[in-house]
Write a structure and sequence with these properties.
Blueprint: E1 9-12, E2 17-19, E3 27-42, E4 45-52, E5 57-58, H1 60-65, E6 72-85, H2 86-95, H3 97-124, E7 154-158, E8 164-167, E9 171-175, E10 187-188, E11 201-208, E12 211-216, E13 224-226, E14 229-230, E15 237-239, E16 244-247, E17 250-256
Parallel strand pairs: 9-10
Antiparallel strand pairs: 1-6, 2-6, 3-4, 3-5, 3-6, 7-8, 7-17, 9-11, 11-12, 12-15, 13-14, 13-16, 16-17
Length: 264
């Protein structure tokens, strides 16, 4: 029986860069053969270096959170790597929950290793005690000027009500607020979504290198649409000013900020 993911295997040669720190991305990777080094660059030097071999996976942060790559991945020995986008990952988890369990175990191990490394680094610097929030000075850490707001990058206009939802960050979550966790998305459609067709974590709008993208979150139920067409889960899809977008049954107009500071 052939490998179920053989169609997703991509060959890489020694020296190839799979992705660079800061790149946008919506795929994760599984090493089928060879070796990949993951590292961050600080002051021109490679730091926090780690090797990934057969069976190891990496890049899952960008797939799950649609955030820019936090490190660089470089092939140090000819490799075959399975490339999985959000749509494929969603199908894999639905068909075999054990995949999600194995990922959680692996991520838990990585978190434990990172915690140990951080504690060791603090000990080497003579910092044997890290202050807890309760030990911070009265009033907590210094707050930024409440009056200083970042510029508006774009806006969503709700059809019918013409309510405006502004985008201030390069990565903004779209969805409904969660009363259990207390998490409120950057674009909170709770009041507009009377039919509850929008998921708590429905999609993200991403601004990178002057281009806007829409990406549906893994687990979204009722679809995300651009120009009336449903987009696949977990895939960065470009959007342009003036186009209609949909989250579940809601329809909004996406508008970019112009060079002069207004809206197109």
């Amino acid at each position: 029986m052939g490998h179920p993911l053989k169609d997703f295997v991509v060959p890489f040669q020694k020296g190839d860069v799979v992705f660079k720190e800061g790149d946008p991305g919506s795929e994760m990777f599984i090493v089928q053969s060879g070796i990949v080094e993951i590292y961050r660059t600080i002051n021109g030097e490679k730091c926090f270096r780690r090797l990934f071999e057969k069976g190891d996976f990496f890049g899952e942060m960008s797939l799950l959170e649609q955030v820019p790559r936090s490190a660089t991945a470089e092939v140090v020995e000819d490799a075959e790597i399975i490339v999985i986008n959000g749509s494929t990952f969603h199908q894999m988890v639905q068909s075999n929950i054990e995949i999600a369990v194995r990922m959680l175990r692996k991520l838990s191990g990585r978190l434990r290793e990172t915690t140990d490394e951080l504690e060791n680094a603090l000990l080497l610097q003579g910092l044997t005690h890290v202050p807890k929030p309760a030990e911070l000075p009265a009033g907590g850490p210094p707050q930024e000027d409440a009056e200083a707001k970042p510029p508006v990058l774009a806006q969503f206009l709700v059809e019918g009500t013409l309510r405006v939802f502004s985008i201030f960050k390069d990565v903004s979550l779209i969805g409904r607020r969660d009363p259990v966790t207390g998490i409120v998305p950057d674009v909170d459609l709770t009041e507009e979504d009377v039919k509850r067709s929008v998921s708590r974590r429905h999609a993200k709008v991403i601004h990178s290198n002057g281009q806007f993208y829409l990406v549906e979150e893994v687990g979204t139920l009722n679809g995300t649409f651009i120009g009336g067409k449903r987009i696949p889960t977990g895939v960065l899809t470009p959007i342009k000013s003036g186009i209609q977008v949909g989250f579940g049954t809601l329809r909004l107009k996406f508008v970019e900020r112009t060079a002069k500071g207004g809206m197109e």
